[in-house]
Amino acid sequence: MNPVTETVPPTRRPAKVRLDAWAVLSIGAAALFWVGATRPIGDPDVWWHVRTGDLILHHGVPHKEPWAFTALGRAWTPTSWLSDVLFAVVHDDLGWRGVILLKLVAGAILLASLYRVLFVRSGAPHRVAAPVFVLTCITLSPFIAERPQLLSLCFLVWVAEQARTTMLGRPPSWWLIVVIYVWANVHGMWILGPAMFVLAAAGAALDRPPRWAAVSRRAMGIAVASLAASALTPAGPRLTIAAFVVRRAASDVSEWQPTNLLDSFSIFLLLIFLLWVVAVARCPQPTPRHETLWMLCLFVFVLTAARNVAPVVLMMSPVVLGALDRTFGRQVSQVPSPPQLPVVVGWTIIVVAVCTSIFVVASRPPLEAGLPSRIVADLKARPGTVRVLDSYVIGGYLTGEGAPKISVAIDGRTDNYDPAFVHRYFQATRQMVGWRELVHELKPDVAVIGRRSQLAQELQRIGWRVTMTDGDWALLDRPVGQS
Fold first, then answer.
1. Other C-beta atoms lying within 10 Å of the C-beta of residue 402
2. Is 283 exposed, middle or buried (0-12, 13-18, 19+ CB in 10 A)?
3. C-alpha 116, offset from chain centre
């Protein structure tokens, strides 16, 4: 007799899959933050990412700086070239609303992947998983933006899960080399892939699970092979040090400066880390050495730059959940189960969130107010190439909307400029240190800077003339005959 028919009679329908209240609460929280990502586009880098994608589609991947007059001819290959192409294709077909929809799709993949790791794969009680999930969503919410970094975070969730299981003694798949190679063409954060498997190899060696030596060798092999494969990307061997080059050049940019863990969103990452500390302190069992190594390395990493908050919270939260489950899981399991709800409740929340997001995106302007579109139109109508002294935060918009006609002094592509120049530029335009010398050396045709900025006032004092104001921005023309 067929054993399946003995266990489940043909006339008996299987029980419906149900969700408990904690899972539904978590889905609702994720949906709320996801709908919040429908905000209009205002990221200063999205413009040059789309412009770079257009350049690649028509002329191939560049290897020298094509636009900024302060860096023309310098070696530059976009490390996120595949993301740039994706953004450009979506923008060409669907406009800026399409870029917002792309952001929402990537954000949905990210949140769904996180839910899968914390609720489905962990096996932890939902009442323990829910707080960790919600805190992680809050921390991630400002990072659900129209940037290649968001696509990179989707890769990170999956690769980090493979690295954690490697530390427990499960040999990683060689297919990870292919995944990390694709990731290396998407965003510079790919370097965390090899780094995680180096940590995994060390963690397995520290705790010595069954077959630990073979597991560690496999993990190190994947790390080394991934680094070698990165040399086959358009950026070539330089891609392995690209993150360090950008870090050095962008040290004056806020997102690359040390993290303030008491910031409005970073503080939730700090709370997640403190939950791990409490769980470890209360647990009667010794903490696995690989877990301590993982968490301490992540804590040090997040302190180095504010932009590291998102990847760190994704790599940290599953480990924190495991520690909480190890310490409090048995006690929690003795508490009466929360009400069970049909799975259609979760899907209803998701459908409502999707419909709301589509309505919001379709019904309001896709771009933030205040962008200097009239200034861009004026500069593009002028003869020849216009050299622009610009504020850093508007440089990406000027490049995206006006290159090569508009040639800026600086934009968000900091890895194509000399690091000393970037530092000097920030000092001159923000702290007014050596600004006269910089202006004299660069000889810009115009300036596009904040209309109320101190630099705008100083330029007017030496004869520059405000020829247009557009929102918060001013267009200033250099005095005739001034060199």
1. 23
2. middle
3. 20
Position 160, amino acid = A
Q: Which helix (H) or strand (E) holds 447?
A: strand 446-450
DSSP string computed for 105-150: HHHHHHHHHHHIIIIIIS---HHHHHHHHHHHHHHHGGG-SSSHHH
pTM for the structure as a whole: 0.93
Question: What is the rounded CA–CA span in Å between residue 172 and residue 309?
Answer: 26
List CB contacts of 277: < 8 A, sequence separation 6 or more: none
**What is the rounded CA–CA span in Å between residue 353 and residue 363?**
15
Are 222 and 198 spatial neighbours (Cβ–Cβ below 8 Å)?
no
Over its length of 483 residues, how does the chain's per-residue pLDDT go in tens digits?
333 333 333 443 444 456 899 999 999 999 999 999 999 998 899 999 999 999 999 999 999 999 999 999 999 999 999 999 999 999 999 999 999 999 999 999 999 999 999 999 998 999 999 999 999 999 999 999 999 999 999 999 999 999 999 999 999 999 999 999 999 999 999 999 999 999 999 999 999 999 999 999 999 999 999 999 999 999 999 999 988 888 888 889 999 999 999 998 899 999 999 999 999 999 999 999 999 999 999 999 999 999 999 999 999 999 999 999 999 988 888 888 788 889 999 999 999 999 999 999 999 999 999 999 999 999 999 999 999 999 999 999 999 999 999 999 999 998 899 999 999 999 999 999 999 999 999 999 999 999 999 999 999 999 999 999 999 999 999 998 665
- Provide φ and ψ at 145, rounded to 5°: -135, 165
Using CA atoms, how far apart are residues 178 and 239, in angstroms rounded to an integer?
16
Tokens 């040399």, residue located? 231
- Which residue, 399, 400, 371, is CA-closest to 71? 399
Residue 221 makes CB contacts below 8 A (sequence gap 6+) with none
Here the tokens at position 401 are: 């909307």
Q: Helices then strands (H, E): number in the chain?
A: 19, 7
Q: Are 190 and 152 in contact (CB under 8 A)?
A: yes
DSSP 8-state class, residue 170:
P
Domain ranges of the chain: 16-356, 373-477
Residue 476 parent element (H or E): strand 473-477
321 sits in which H/E element:
helix 309-333
| Distance in Å from the first CA to the final CA of the chain | 96
Token representation of residue 9:
């009679």
Any alpha helices (H) in 144-241, and if so which ranges? 148-167, 176-184, 192-207, 212-229
Helix (H) or strand (E) holding 21: helix 21-36
Length of the chain: 483
